[in-house]
Amino acid sequence: MSTRTRPLTITIGVALGLGALITAFPFLWMLATAFKPQRESVTYPPSVLPHDPTLQWFGTLFTELDFGRYLLNTVIVVLIGFVGLILMAMAGYAFAKFDFRGRRWLFFLVLATMMIPIQVTMIPTYLILNGMKLTNTLVGIALPTLVSGFSIFLFRQFMSTIPTEMLEAARLDGAGEWRTFWQIVMPMSKPILAVQVVLTFISGWNSFLWPLIIASDQKLYTLSVGLALLNQQLAVNPSLQMAAASVMVVPILIVFIVFQRYVIQGFALSGLK
User: Domain 55-269 has what CATH class?
Assistant: First the structure.
């Protein structure tokens, strides 16, 4: 490294470090406040780190405020969304590797759904689910997000890169279409599957507006709806609010860290920048 480039590299590293610290500071403040006693969270000037850390507020969430039920509902919605992940993988594989009549037009319709805001389809979707007696149910909360045009597009883009000769060789060896899909296509699609796992998890975990519309029973609310209710009911307890926000945010961060390497690889191989 030359003497000219070394100071520039150090300057860029320091600038990136400061930017990362500024970006992460609200998250760190949220975690620190979640462990503060109430008197510390409302004192002025505020302190960044808690002087007397406590787990009281996390216990309050799950023993007095029914956040355990909200957490269970959210997990169920996410798991139902993972079923849709398999369906979207099948659709992407069909668009990528099968030649059938109307394929281009069907794929065009899939892409066209990406241009329609979800708010436009909420009323028709509600009427359909109401006719199917699925309003005020967890299935009704998860069903509209089961399949996504964007996710099908990602699967199609990635699976188009799988060599067709490999699939034909498997068929010549006697493998059926189901076996080819599960034992060849899916293992080779790990990067894009990781991307979709993260996107599906975030979509289900952060679902707010639709559960608020479709569920009239508070026992069916998700975590995000429960957090909104908490903010309305208890505006003078920042520690409790930050504890609830931590329950919302930390799992998403953990999932992203676990799948980060595959996510970057999946987006790169899908042709997205």
Answer: mainly alpha
